[in-house]
Structures are given as C-alpha cells and as structure tokens.
Design a protein that fits this description.
Blueprint (H helix, E strand, L loop, with lengths): L19 H19 L4 H4 L2 H12 L8 H36 L11 H13 L2 H12 L3 H25 L4 H8 L4 H35 L6 H11 L3 H29 L2
Helix pairs in contact: 4-5, 4-7, 4-9, 4-10, 4-11, 5-7, 6-7, 7-9, 8-9, 9-10, 9-11, 10-11
Length: 272
C-alpha cells in the first residue's frame, strides 16, 4: 500500500543521456540529413517534363522484344548457364560454410574454441568482398566465362553462410548434446546425432535464401564477363540492341520469379 505523503517522482525525460536508443536514433537522422545535403540530387530535373519525355522514348525502343527462334535459343542457354552458376556456387558455399562454421562456433560452455576468432576473421574477409569484385579478380586467373562467376558466388556466399551457420550452431539447444557427452560420446557423433538434426532446417532455409540472392547476383556477374544472362545483356546493351535487351530482361525476371516461388515452397515444406 502506497504511503499518503509519498513524494512525487517526475517521469524520465524523453531525451536522456543514458538513453542509448535516443542517441542512436539522433545519429541516424543526422546521417540521413547530411546525406541529402552532401549529394547533388537534381530532383527538379528528374521529375521534369523533358526527363519524362526522354524516358518514354527510351522505353519505347525496347518494344517489340526480339522473339526470333535463334535468339530465344541463345537466351534459353544463357538462362540455364545462370541457373547452373547460382546453384553450383550456392552448393559449394554451403559445404565450405559448414566446414568453416564448425571451428567458428562455440558448441558448449566447456568448448575452448581456440580457432573461433581467426575463423570468423576469414569468414568476415570472404563476405566483405562483393561478388562483382571477386569476379573481376578471378577473371584474371580463370578467364572469361561461367567458371569465374561460379567461384565468385561461392567465395562470397561462403563467408555469409559460414557466419549464419556458426550462429545457428551456437544457438542450438544444448540439452541433447550435453546428455550424449555425459555418456562419453565423442564430439563428431554428438554433432551428427544431437546438434545437426536440430539446426538442419535452419541451415537449409539459409541456403535456399542465399540461392535466391545468388540468382540475381549471377545475372549481374555476366556484365564483367562471367557468363550467363548478364554477359548476353552487356553485349547487346553495348550495341544498343534494345529489343534483344528487352527479351533478356524478361528472361531474368521470369527466372528470378520462378526461383523465388520454388524456394518459398521448399522452405514452407521444411517447416511443417
């Protein structure tokens, strides 16, 4: 029961020095304001009638798309090449990411995890370099074509999946593993029979999501000569073959939409 003469306490100030979230929000707002102030954004010219007219003329050049049989055959083969690049790159990244996630994760409280810090440093280095930069570097050694694009996707995605896999392994419920270790079961069998079954749906979900991203990345990597639809797109855009460019863009959109639907359905089936 409250005392009758209890002193009134003022509510905490909305903007308090101890409010970390307030300072963080203020910093974000200041960064946004500084970004608009420092960039020379020509909004008036962008929304002008002249800009709209120029964009309209440019869009009209895309139609009608080139639907000739020989060109559709080239687009179909480039689509298959892009799909293969993304699938193989994601598969390699999932395997390498899991291998690197094991030393990058602390499996239980008594695990010393001596390789955790250096392995995470390697993962951070792999994912900090974008796919386009990887492809540009690998073109020197692997040459033009899908091989360089596949390796570029694999290297970058290994860093991303390795970090996600390590976090999933560390957050796995420790009970089953602790029970097996208490009975003298070795680390490998504990991982295979206790930890992996618990996190496998999450690992598969991460892998499928990255495959969706790699489909888009593989379509862009061809711009630097790494094969697939991107290489075909860069070639015909450079020659101003806009009707052929329209066909290639439509193939990209259909491919990304198809992979998104299949990946979503697969993830839903795994979580049931």
């Amino acid at each position: 029961m409250r005392a009758a003469n209890e002193p009134y306490r003022l509510p905490p100030r909305l903007f308090d020095a101890r409010c970390t979230a307030c300072w963080f929000t203020l910093g974000i707002v200041m960064l946004i304001v500084a970004s608009f102030w420092s960039l020379d954004l020509q909004w008036r010219a962008f929304f002008s009638a002249e800009a709209a007219s120029s964009m309209g003329r440019f869009v009209r050049e895309f139609f009608p798309p080139d639907l000739s049989q020989p060109f559709l055959g080239k687009v179909a083969w480039a689509t298959v090449e892009t799909l293969a690049m993304s699938a193989l790159g994601t598969l390699l990244a999932a395997a390498l990411g899991l291998v690197l996630a094991l030393p990058a994760a602390r499996m239980h409280d008594s695990d010393r995890a001596l390789a955790r810090a250096p392995t995470r440093l390697v993962l951070n280095a792999l994912r900090s370099i974008p796919e386009l930069v990887w492809a540009s570097l690998l073109l020197i050694s692997a040459g033009l074509g899908p091989f360089a694009g596949t390796l570029a996707l694999a290297f970058h995605t290994t860093g991303v999946l390795g970090r996600l896999f390590a976090e999933a392994l560390e957050n796995a419920p420790p009970g089953p593993g602790f029970a097996l270790r208490a009975q003298g079961v070795g680390p490998l069998r504990v991982f295979l029979y206790a930890t992996l079954p618990q996190v496998l749906p999450q690992l598969m979900s991460y892998t499928l999501y990255r495959w969706e991203n790699n489909i888009r990345a593989a379509a862009v990597l061809g711009v630097v000569g790494a094969g697939g639809l991107g290489q075909l797109l860069a070639f015909h855009m450079g020659l101003f073959h806009m009707n052929k460019t329209c066909t290639i863009l439509a193939a990209m959109l259909l491919l990304v939409a198809l992979v998104d639907v299949l990946s979503y359905a697969w993830r839903r089936a795994m979580t049931r």
